[in-house]
Write a structure and sequence with these properties.
It is a single chain. The chain is of the alpha+beta class. It has 20 helices and 22 strands. A hairpin with a 5-residue loop joins strand 21 and strand 22. The two termini are 72 Å apart.
Length: 726
């Protein structure tokens, strides 16, 4: 008996502690959401402040330092947090105008321009300069910033270009203190662009009319630390990451280990053109402060009750042994008492319910499990609820109710308010008033879903469990070993064969081209034709070997890209130039974006050119002679990556569409053509190929956090579409 009481008490304590921690987590989640909203509101207010300054500059007025300081003094900058350091202006100065810019500053006696001339890089540069000409309010820190060329820091220059193209304020990445030799420099800047004659509509017009930026210097630590120190956020640790730069912007509790934390909330936010991640965790002090008074009281009451119940049972047993012959009436009363205890034990559960004489529920109270399973039962009869019982079980239960009999441990499945099926156990007994008139039923219920799940699992694995585990383990080990052996053999074969073939192929191609050139000089057309065939076959074989090497790198996870600033339009024209001879031979025509337009993006030029080369080669291969291949490059938006946990917020991107007039692709093969060694059923007997090119293209584009897809045109032909972030 004592052991049963101990087990019941331990179970009750664990349930109560779990409920206390759930309540604490709910409060923590609510505080985290409020804190995340405060962070976004504070950054949004800074964005609005920068936009108002840019709007003033868009009007075309030329403000000096004193006028700019007067304008800033009229703004409510104190409400933007202690992290706000100052608001200033940086004009764009092209390389050709930099000497004139410095000379004019000397001539007019402007202190801002003279400061810039004393800094390194005063001579004309090969890039646009953005010297800070105003930064107010005046302070020692802001004084160090004035005259600094923002264009010399890549983290600032890229943010300025993003703000210029978007026409909206953009945050820079993190500049760690001391990275440029100036420990006092602000770690994050916010840029708002302004233009000649106001903000244009298109990106190309914005680039032409771009004049400069209004900038806000801010300290993330001084901006965000007060938020986590306010009363509603004490005990919450905030960790802010720049997802694109993969750097930590702010950490309120450095060294705090987030792994294995039970209280962890993450938010992703796109602010000023950058993707940030906010991670909230509890400090050890807050975790230790979670109150457990209820579970302590349950344990104390359970211990006292167990001792008391054990003593009562022992006392009753002793009395029964000593006075059995004299206590028949007492024995009958004891049996009645035992029956009452049995009923109480059967009725003890998770929640309490009561029905009126019409068997409609009129009250429900008790623990959380009951409320979550059937939150809205008042006014309904049991058969009105989403309960799973057979027709025979319903007949038997109605008969018990009609006879006004108690019932115990009625088990059934019920559809909860959350849309999940749960197992419950219901017990009840009839209620009679003082006159003996039936007044309804009262009883309790408990959630037995866990117990049912365990019973079902034990039932399924009861027989031959050991043999089943051994058999499955052996099968898994054999399959694992076979798969690893096959993978190693395949990788070794591809690597060895590709390298062994590539070296002699280069030699064959070199001698074949030499022979082709010499026979051309000797006017030996027949021998020249033979050498041409050797060159063509060798180049095809070399391309296959290169694809095999790329495939082995992809499968080994070693395909690396090195994104650098580039222009997609120029890259496209360079690749098309490689196919000019073949296109002229087949009278194919190209429809390309104008070479005067630009599509800047950060890509690996070698790898991305490989993607364009492969897609254009396919378009030429399947286009009829005399056809037209159209290529479009236009602004678009996309999501980064292709995984389930990737960012859902869209980002600016370039859409490259290659449109041919060929035979198209069957609709059920539009996805499989990107798989290894797979070709469209329309081309297997026609144009040929290895089925590796599009697989490699997909992996290269994915490494750029973009996507590639294929579709058919209603009028005929296929369209390959590449999305790559700007």
């Amino acid at each position: 008996m004592l052991l049963v009481c101990v087990l019941v008490t331990a179970f009750a304590i664990s349930r109560m502690r779990a409920a206390e921690e759930d309540e604490a987590f709910a409060n923590f989640s609510q505080s985290s959401r409020r804190l995340a909203r405060d962070v976004e509101l504070r950054l949004a207010s800074l964005t609005q402040l920068a936009s108002s300054g840019a709007g003033l500059m868009n009007s075309g007025r030329s403000l000096g330092r004193e006028e700019w300081a007067s304008y800033i003094a009229g703004l409510q900058t104190t409400g933007h947090g202690s992290g706000f350091q100052g608001l200033g202006v940086a004009f764009r100065v092209a390389p050709a105008a930099q000497r004139e810019f410095v000379a004019r500053g000397r001539k007019e006696g402007n202190a801002d321009f003279r400061i810039w001339t004393r800094r390194p890089g005063a001579q004309p540069l090969d890039h646009d300069a953005f010297p800070v000409t105003h930064l107010v309010p005046a302070s020692d820190v802001n004084g160090l910033e004035v005259g600094f060329d923002l264009g010399t820091e890549p983290v600032f220059a890229s943010a300025i270009m993003l703000a210029r193209d978007r026409g909206e304020p953009s945050f820079s990445g993190v500049l760690s203190p001391g990275s440029d030799g100036d420990a006092a420099r602000a770690r994050v800047l916010l840029f708002a662009p302004f233009y000649r004659g106001g903000r244009p509509d298109s990106i190309n017009e914005r680039r032409e009319a771009f004049v400069g930026v209004v900038l806000i210097a801010l300290s993330p630590e001084r901006l965000l630390q007060p938020l986590v120190e306010q009363d509603g956020a004490r005990g919450i640790a905030l960790h802010v990451n720049d997802l694109e730069q993969e750097k930590v912007i702010f950490d309120s509790h450095p060294g705090l280990d987030h792994s294995g934390s039970k209280f962890l909330v993450q938010y992703k936010a796109t602010l000023g053109g950058r993707n940030w991640q906010l991670v909230f965790d509890v400090t050890p002090e807050l975790m230790a402060s979670i109150p457990h008074q209820n579970s302590f009281m349950v344990g104390l009451i359970g211990a006292l009750g167990g001792l008391l119940l054990t003593g009562i049972v022992y006392h009753l047993a002793t009395l029964r042994t000593r006075a059995e012959q004299l206590a028949r009436d007492a024995t009958a009363e004891l049996r009645v008492s035992e029956e009452r205890f049995r009923r109480l034990a059967a009725l003890s559960s998770d929640w309490y319910w009561e029905q009126g004489p019409d068997l409609r529920f009129r009250e429900m109270a008790g623990g959380e499990p009951g409320n979550s399973i059937l939150p809205d039962i008042v006014g309904k009869q049991r058969w009105d609820l989403p309960i799973e019982l057979t027709e025979q079980e319903w007949v038997e239960h109605r008969a018990v109710l009609a006879a006004r009999q108690p019932f115990f441990d009625l088990q059934y499945r019920v559809l909860s308010a959350t849309g999940e099926w749960s197992w419950v156990s219901i017990s009840g007994e009839p209620i009679f008033d003082a006159d003996g008139k039936f007044a309804g039923y009262r009883g309790v219920g408990k959630d037995i879903t866990v117990r049912k799940t365990i019973e079902e699992e034990l039932r399924r694995h009861r027989d031959n469990l050991t043999d089943l585990v051994v058999e499955r383990t052996a099968d898994l080990l054999a399959a694992k070993n076979a798969a690893e052996q096959a993978y190693r053999a395949k990788s070794e074969f591809l690597a060895n064969m590709s390298h062994e073939l590539r070296t002699p192929l280069h030699a064959i191609l070199a001698f074949a081209r030499l022979g082709k050139d010499r026979t051309r000089a000797q006017a030996d057309e027949k021998t020249q034709r033979y050498f041409s065939r050797i060159v063509d076959a060798g180049e095809r074989l070399l391309s296959l070997v290169s694809n095999l090497l790329d495939l082995s790198k992809i499968e080994a996870g070693k395909l690396l890209v090195d994104p650098q600033p580039g222009d997609l339009v120029k890259m496209l024209h360079d690749v098309v130039a490689e196919f000019e001879a073949l296109a002229e031979e087949r009278k194919l025509q190209w429809s390309l974006p104008s070479a005067t337009t630009h599509a800047p993006a950060r890509v690996d030029v070698v790898r991305f050119s490989q993607v364009l080369r492969n897609v254009l080669a396919n378009a030429m291969k399947f286009s009829p002679d005399g056809g037209v291949i159209r290529i479009l490059i236009e602004e678009a938006a996309t999501t980064l990556g292709r995984g389930a946990d990737d960012l859902a917020a869209p980002v600016a991107a370039w859409r490259i569409a290659v449109i041919d007039e060929g035979i198209g692709i069957p609709d059920d093969e539009l996805e499989t053509v990107f798989d290894s060694f797979v070709q469209s059923s329309k081309t297997r007997d026609g144009a040929g190929g290895t089925g590796l090119g599009l697989t490699i293209c997909r992996e290269i584009v994915a490494a750029h956090r973009g996507s590639i897809s294929a579709r058919n045109r209603p009028e005929g032909g296929a369209v390959f579409e590449i999305m790559v972030p700007r």
